[in-house]
Amino acid sequence: MRKPGLELLLEHPAIWRGRSVARTATHSTGFSPLDDALPGQGWPLAGLTEILAPRHGAGELRLLIPLLRAFAHATPARWVAWVAPPFEPYAPALAEADVSPERQLVVRTTQPLWVLEQLLDSGACAAALAWLGRTPAAANDLRRLQWATQRQSTPAFLFRPACAAAQASPAELRIAFEPRVGGARLRLLKSRGGARMPFDVQWESGHGTS
Question: How many domains does the chain contain in total?
Answer without folding.
Answer: 1
